[in-house]
Please model this.
Amino acid sequence: MRNILLGGVGAVALVACGGGEETTSAAETAAPAAEEAVEASDEEPAAEEEAAIDEEPAKLAAHAGDIDAVIADPARGEDAARDQYRHPKETLGFLGVDEGMTVVDTLPGGGWYSKMLISYLGPDGKVIGADYSREMWPLFGGFADEEFLEGKKTWTTTWVEQAAGWVDGGASVAAFQFDELPEEMKGTADAVLFIRSFHHLNRFEEEGEFRTKALKETMDVLKPGGIVGVVQHRGPEGNDDVWAEGDKGYLKQSQVVAAFEAAGFELVDTSEVNANPKDVPTNEDMVWRLPPSLGTSRDDPELRAEMQAIGESDRMTLKFRKPA
Model:
């Protein structure tokens, strides 16, 4: 078993964690060892659990079926700064996510995507947060201490309580943890989103088949014909296979497609909406060197400027379907 420890980069990422990417999650945030030192919710390090919020944030309004109004809602605050990299309108449009659907948001953290979904899906819709298995979190080490793991025992309750306060009059919310999918949720979802959350499942596959189990439950929670959307840090196909296992945040598009197809899903389409040709990582690079984490250049202004010029990671955007 790999012993992944959370270093300085990861610790910083944790602060940014949460579904709102600067609200990133612990998983996404656990940088070199985990994921983007700061990404979240979608996106995104080891701990994609967002940092605690001291002040009560403004609530979004429900904008059922109107993604432009959701994106323009002033209550989104700093989350809006990430739109230029996350392209939420184009991404959700490509995946076919629409008003009234039931959508699973994996590793939702502080809710960057979940907040928009709760508003956009409207009162007839439902957002289900899906966290990593409680058996997987200890593998992150570092930040995943006794207190953190204890909190995971009540995550399905605490996340729902938090998410219920993000939007006035939006979609209903629920939650589950992989390995613990409730029987009553099976066959209820129209779509499952893996937004920068798949690399951790892949990197810990050998330790407990966490990728395999998560894909099995993804199949179970979906309705026949349901959609899976994947937005994931993409590494060059020519890079080393071991480098692309997920420890550095990157995966190869071919391996992601192969994993889903092996699990019984059909690849429907691919999109370059979240591509960034400036990000060409080598076998020595990790995704957390880039914004928003900038984990390798905190004390090097010149390198920091270089990373900011690249921008956020190159990302594949894939659409799969559960057979009808």
